[in-house]
Specification:
This protein is α/β, with parallel strands linked by helices. 49% of the residues lie in helices and 10% in strands. It contains 14 helices and six strands. A hairpin with a 7-residue loop joins strand 1 and strand 2. The chain is globular.
Length: 285
């Protein structure tokens, strides 16, 4: 079960409308802050050979005193919380909610790639199953993440690690999408694996060159995100701002969140600017 719930982190947040400079790293200063903090946009799962901690990011880390992620990955109970939030209510198996033809298609995929089918995996919420399909679109067996790399840095420097929200919230927000719609997403991704593989490849390529504008266009092809953008992006961004302000006022902080939370009229960058902060891109590598 631990392996299966871990892949939920592939549910990447990359969406926004407003045009901003093409940078994943931003400096937060002004509005009474004694020292600047930094904000970095991540993809939550990538192949290790594609993870690149640029020099500008290393400099920002070296200047920081604590790490703040979307959720506190240093929480000793995080896996238990993930497991509890990733299963259907009363452990209901969703294989009764899917047609025979689609069930056969899904069972074939999961047997081939994970060694078991929906008779067991069906207790997971459909969005968790979708993340498992996404994982197989990556060109590696064991994906890594920027969050994991930043955690190593924090542990090495004996930093405190905090989260902007509880991990359960991230997963329950996806429950806003009707289960039938989630299952249609799942089946369509399995049916068109070639298109999914290409979209993931394009997404990572755009991310690697920090092309925020292209990322915004690419993510528009993921209906599970656009279906509840207001809930999964806008409301969360707004709820994060007071917490970001608190941490930045206390210590020089390195914030790392999904890259899609940066841009847009209601993105973290614009929301911080509206509060009076100077938020500028770090362009040099």
């Amino acid at each position: 079960m631990k392996k299966f719930v871990t892949v939920l982190f592939i549910l990447v947040s990359i969406h926004g409308n407003a045009q901003i400079e093409n940078s994943l790293l931003w400096k937060i200063e002004g509005n009474g802050l004694k020292n600047p903090s930094h904000l970095f946009g991540t993809i939550h799962a990538m192949c290790p050979n594609e993870l690149n901690i640029a020099e500008k990011v290393k400099k920002a880390l070296d200047a920081s005193q604590q790490l703040v992620l979307e959720v506190d990955m240093d929480d000793p109970d995080i896996m238990t919380k993930l497991q509890q939030a990733s299963v259907n209510p009363s452990m209901k198996n969703i294989n009764t909610e899917i047609s025979e033809a689609d069930l056969a298609l899904a069972n074939n995929f999961f047997l081939k790639n994970y060694g078991t089918d929906l008779s067991q995996l069906g207790i997971l919420k459909p969005m968790g199953l979708i993340s498992m399909v996404f994982m197989k679109a990556l060109n590696c067996e064991q994906p890594g993440s920027y969050e994991a790399e930043f955690m190593k840095y924090a542990q090495k420097h004996k930093w405190e690690v905090f989260g902007l929200e509880e991990v359960e919230l991230q997963l329950t927000l996806l429950d806003e999408i009707p289960i039938k719609q989630q299952l249609s997403f799942l089946v369509n991704y399995i049916k068109d694996r070639e298109a999914l593989n290409k979209s993931i490849e394009d997404l990572i390529s755009a991310y690697t060159i920090e092309d925020i504008s292209k990322l915004n266009v690419l993510i528009g092809g993921y209906p599970e995100y656009t279906a509840i953008k207001g809930v999964i992006f806008d409301k969360r961004n707004e709820s994060w701002i007071p917490t970001i302000e608190k941490f930045a006022s206390e210590k020089t902080t390195f914030f790392a969140v999904g890259a899609g939370h940066l841009a847009g009229d209601k993105g973290v960058i614009n929301l911080l600017r509206a509060r009076g902060y100077i938020v500028t891109p770090i362009l040099e590598n």
